[in-house]
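At this stage, I needed to go through a protein sequence along with its fold in token form, as given directly below:
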Amino acid sequence: MDDAQIRREVLEALQGIAPEVEAESLRGDRPLRDEVDLDSMDWLRFLAALHQRLGVNIPEADYQQLTSLDALLAYVGRRLAAG
């Protein structure tokens, strides 16, 4: 899966949790949860949606690495590449 496909899947999962999010307006360097106003339950639902869509398991210990959209995309890309 290439970077564009990963981005598309992540943004579709995000819009499934927060349909009001305009994906094209998201800045990759800003705190993602703040930018899309996700509370802790929405965040967990989003991570579960990523697991369903991409088969990526994100352990709770790694949550602090997922601060921005760019960081999340890089993390998911690494996890997918590692298998």
